[in-house]
Amino acid sequence: MRRLITAALVLSFAPLVLAAGWNKAYFGATKPGSFATYRTTSTIGPPSTYTMSRRADQGGLVVIESYSEFADKVTPSSTTRYEMAKGFDVDRDAIDYMKQVVGMSMGVGKDGALEAMPAEVLTSIKAVPTYAATAAFKATETVDGKSCDRYTYTRDQPGTPSVESGDIWLNPTVPFGVVKHTTTQKDRTGKVMWTTETVLLSSGAKPVPATTMTAAPVDPTLKPMTLKAAYDAGLIYVNVEIAPADKRGDRLNLRIETKGKPLTLTVAAANTSLRVEIPFQNLVFNAGTPRQFELSDGKPATLVVNQVGTDRVVAGKFRISIYEGDPTFTGSATMDTVK
């Protein structure tokens, strides 16, 4: 899985750029259902093809997906899905979208189960400099019959061994805006390490269900909701850790994170059961007393609760959440029967 994560991240950085410093809002064609397919060639590694698509919004949040295929017949194809923060401006920011990712999941193949990525992965991708920060307009040029604005840029992330520079050709009628993208990677001495060229192969739009486009999203910030309701709705991550000294798993240390929306959550003085399914069926706990707490992006809440039942988790550290109705699990858990 480590190789898959690395490959997907590298590919995702190559095609898209953001628009805080661009002359125009180049990404207005990136509507729900729109897609753009690209081919990347490099002086190292095999060619690859990937398709960027904007899925139907989920709970009022923009969702972007990347499906990648590799020509080496060794690296499996992969799907990476990103959830954007509340208020994400697609028209101006679709290029540097990774700066505003609040949820990320990956899977092998096109229709395989997606696994939520841990917080440290999101932190690492958000640390990469944007294209827009140094973008400079150079000229209007025709690429593959399309009139494009060409920009140059440099991305220099402190602490890394290399510096990326490149050119991006943008057209506002194309979903995701990018028609062509070239990069040069140099080490700190100025020696060229590798180059890439990414070109647009095709683009268009597919219909999405009318209900996802016309229904007013439910805003959970309007009133408090239970932790279980927020979990079942796919609005939060629940990070669970059991102290090594707790051999029975009596106490669960929970860190609750929102996927982007500010939330007011409650926990009743009764059993709460969160669906997990794999590697165990449910996580059941009791808070002891009623609780109410606030969540916002970057500001999680912590709870210590009592695990309930005889078949329980007795050791581990993991994250659970619901994505598109299905539970996801990341980490490790040891199960046992406690009497």
Structural features, described:
The chain is elongated, with a radius of gyration of 22 Å. It has helices spanning 2-13, 90-93, 119-126, 210-214, 227-232, and strands at residues 34-42, 48-58, 61-70, 78-84, 101-108, 115-116, 136-143, 146-155, 162-170, 178-187, 192-205, 225-226, 236-241, 251-258, 263-267, 271-275, 282-286, 291-295, 301-307, 311-323, 326-337. It has 339 residues and is mostly beta strands. The protein is built from five helices and 21 strands. Strand 10 and strand 11 form a beta hairpin.
List the helices and strands and how they pair.
Blueprint: H1 2-13, E1 34-42, E2 48-58, E3 61-70, E4 78-84, H2 90-93, E5 101-108, E6 115-116, H3 119-126, E7 136-143, E8 146-155, E9 162-170, E10 178-187, E11 192-205, H4 210-214, E12 225-226, H5 227-232, E13 236-241, E14 251-258, E15 263-267, E16 271-275, E17 282-286, E18 291-295, E19 301-307, E20 311-323, E21 326-337
Parallel strand pairs: 12-15
Antiparallel strand pairs: 1-2, 1-11, 2-3, 3-4, 4-5, 5-6, 7-8, 8-9, 9-10, 10-11, 13-14, 13-20, 14-19, 15-18, 16-17, 17-19, 20-21
In which range does the helix fraction lie?
10-25%
Apparent shape:
elongated
Q: How many strand units?
A: 21
Ends distance: 37 Å
Structural class: mainly beta
Radius of gyration: 22 Å
- Unreliable stretches covering 5 or more consecutive residues: 1-20, 211-221
- How much of the sequence lies in strands comes to over 45%
- Helix and strand element order: HEEEEHEEHEEEEEHEHEEEEEEEEE
Helical element count?
5
How would you write the strand order of the largest sheet? 6-5-4-3-2-1-11-10-9-8-7
Mean pLDDT over the full residue set: 86
Q: Tell me about the largest β-sheet.
A: 11 strands, antiparallel
